[in-house]
């Protein structure tokens, strides 16, 4: 939930165990958000981890070169030319709360 005038981010997840399903422990979970591409271009995960995000088209073969590490690409012809030569890795947008020293999670609207 994002609220005007409040810094921070709150999100809930509901999990349902259907009748007849085996019991399990949920040690880790992931949440993925698809932001409106016309409004969100910048992310601040921690005070030290902040960046402009490439567009989804920037990850296509004509704009990026696949690297050896899965999920990582070299941006060779990005829409935002300031990102040329940058490496985009899907894990750079992750926040490991048990290891991170952060004060806020901020997604900035740019339009």
Automatic annotation (TrEMBL):
Judging by the UniProt lineage, the source's domain of life is Eukaryota
Molecular function GO terms recorded = lyase activity
Q: Which UniProt keywords apply?
A: Lyase
* Keyword field contains Hydrolase: no
Matching InterPro entries: Polysacch_Lyase_4, Rhamnogal_lyase
What is the protein named? POLYSACCHARIDE LYASE FAMILY 4 PROTEIN
